[in-house]
Amino acid sequence: MISVAIITVVKDDAGGLIATHSSLIEQTFHEWEMLIVVGSSKDSTLSIASELQAQDRRVRVLEEKGQSIYGAMNEGLEIANGEFAWFMNAGDRFAGPDVLANAINEITDSGVGVVVGGYGIIGSLREKNYRYPSKTLSQIAFAFNRRGGCHQAMIFRTKALRNIGCFDDSYSLASDFKAVLEVIRTAGARRVNEVYALVEPGGLADQGIFTVHRQKHQIRRRVFRNPIVTAASILWTWAAQSKIRLRIHLRNDVKSND
């Protein structure tokens, strides 16, 4: 019986795919399937994915039909058999062997639509964990927490995602943010003080961080439809982007003085 579908979107990252799969097979919980959605790749990604499928019947490979990461995530979700779904990008991994078991216990016992865990940044000079106290998670608390979650550290109830229409592809870098807010509204959420995922920096969201914040503001305005929340969102977005600009400026100053 399959309890959870691990959906991994990958393109030109054979090594990252191997690392993610290795992290999955180390889990103490074994009732999973891995759906690998492969984008058009120039390296050996597709052949590696096919090898994993041949070696393990729990692995299924499909070639991406569209061009966006959220479209690919939806393609995986469409054929998922698990009661729960987890979206783990190639190169990212579970923080420990008991993560999957603990997360499934949490979402089963709580009955919510999504459980949000903490995450760690790896492979950079600023390695750090981001996690918060365990509690019931409201829309407003999630909406105004800059480091409050990434989809690699979340387990969803598959039905809850499908009920909201899955990921809205019109938000190219923040559709997961919108999906969580909608799942909180329709099915509830929990945050737990456990690091679920180790995430590599430098992905599409990091590369387009200003777009991420702009889209999150658009989503907050659309979801809450409240002038006070919209005003707070404008200030929040300005502060977040200003902090990023300052950090970039200081980093460039250091480089110029070297």
Structural write-up:
The chain has 258 residues and is of the alpha/beta class. The chain has a single domain (4-257), classed as Spore Coat Polysaccharide Biosynthesis Protein SpsA, Chain A (Alpha-Beta Complex), CATH 3.90.550.10. Helices cover 47% and strands 21% of the residues. The protein is built from ten helices and ten strands. It has helices spanning 14-25, 45-55, 69-79, 99-110, 139-143, 158-163, 175-187, 204-207, 209-224, 227-257; strands spanning 4-10, 32-38, 59-63, 84-87, 93-94, 114-121, 128-130, 135-136, 154-157, 189-199. α7 (175-187) packs parallel to α9. The chain is globular. The model has no long low-confidence stretch (mean pLDDT 91).
Order of helices and strands: EHEHEHEEHEEEHEHHEHHH
Taking the sheet with the most strands, its summary is: 10 strands, mixed
CATH topology: Spore Coat Polysaccharide Biosynthesis Protein SpsA, Chain A
- By CATH, the superfamily comes out as Spore Coat Polysaccharide Biosynthesis Protein SpsA, Chain A
**Estimated structural class:** alpha/beta
Q: What is the gyration radius calculated from CA atoms? A: 18 Å
CATH architectural group = Alpha-Beta Complex
Distance between the termini: 58 Å
Counted up, domains total 1
CATH class: Alpha Beta
**Low-pLDDT residue intervals, each spanning 5 or more residues:** none
Key attributes of the depicted protein:
alpha/beta; 10 helices; 258 residues; Spore Coat Polysaccharide Biosynthesis Protein SpsA, Chain A; globular; 10-stranded mixed sheet
